[in-house]
Amino acid sequence: MTAEQDDVAVRAPLTGTVIGIAVGAGDQVEPGDELLILESMKMEHAVVSEDAGKILDVTARVGETVTAGTPLVVIEPREHDEAGDLQQAEVDLDRVRADLDEAIRRHRIGSDSYRREATERRHAEGRRTARENIADLVDDGSFVEYGALVIAAQRRRRSLDDLIERTPADGLVTGTATTGGVPVAVMSYDYSVLAGTQGIQNHRKTDRLFELARRENLPVVIFAEGGGGRPGDTDGTGVAGLDVTTFRVLTASTGACPWSRSSPATASRATRRWPASAM
């Protein structure tokens, strides 16, 4: 839609990615109403209306990266003498945006209190959960988790809802913290998630943590428990779908395929028997 002369085009105040749109064509808005959310430099920026009127068109799309000055929304302003036009929009301080609510829900799904059945099984076996291991190691409140919302790379085999519920953090809780005031990097394999096997996403988290530890000269603490490499991940390529830095580095340095404990020749034969597309 082309804006008429009297219509108002709300433009992007900065370069960023559209991550949420709160209005649609035909909606009535007041000054201060949220129109959409831009993400830039890992910060979220709300774009609000400066006018009262009707939304004629939303030209932005979620996921689109826009430059400063790009038209995002077209508003047909109301005349200033219309009733209610001069009323300042009230901000509901208790309102939680849908995307934030979803993020909060996803973090809760990965907690021990939410995963009560898995937590009780660990305790019945005389063991602790991955998060309990970390909590006992680090100073209270110091743990900053990395990759808490990733899930197993099995979307070709399982539904998204099932993966969110059953594969939180892809079986590896990892991040940075302090222990006795000393900065550390820490990771703990979660045996209650796919028997603690090592999948695509948790290997990427491992690579990232090792990279950070090397750069910042951090000691690394690893709680290792699990069933080795996971051949069931299908959302990738390479040996059994696990084409990640850790495997490539280990293979180059040892001449062996880490997940199979075999020679490169044996690994090649294994790959032919079980192609990644069939996993």
Question: What this model shows, in words?
Answer:
- The protein is an alpha+beta fold and 279 residues long.
- The protein is 26% helix and 23% strand.
- Among the domains are: 73 residues, Beta Barrel (OB fold (Dihydrolipoamide Acetyltransferase, E2P)), CATH 2.40.50; 106 residues, 2-enoyl-CoA Hydratase, Chain A, domain 1, CATH 3.90.226.10.
- The chain is built from 7 helices and 12 strands.
- The strands form 3 sheets. A 4-stranded antiparallel β-sheet has the order 1-8-6-3, with no helix packed on it. Strands 5-4-2-7 form a 4-stranded antiparallel β-sheet, with no helix packed on it. The protein has a 4-stranded mixed β-sheet with strand order 9-10-11-12, sandwiched between helices.
- The chain is elongated, with a radius of gyration of 25 Å.
- The C terminus is likely disordered.
Short key terms for the protein model shown above:
four-stranded antiparallel β-sheet, alpha+beta, 23% strand, 279 residues, 2-enoyl-CoA Hydratase, Chain A, domain 1, disordered C terminus
Average pLDDT works out at 82
> CATH superfamily of the domain at 130-235, called what?
2-enoyl-CoA Hydratase, Chain A, domain 1
Task: Tell me what portion of residues adopts beta-strand conformation.
Answer: 15-25%
- Please give the number of β-strands: 12
First-residue to last-residue Cα separation: 47 Å
Helix content: 25-40%
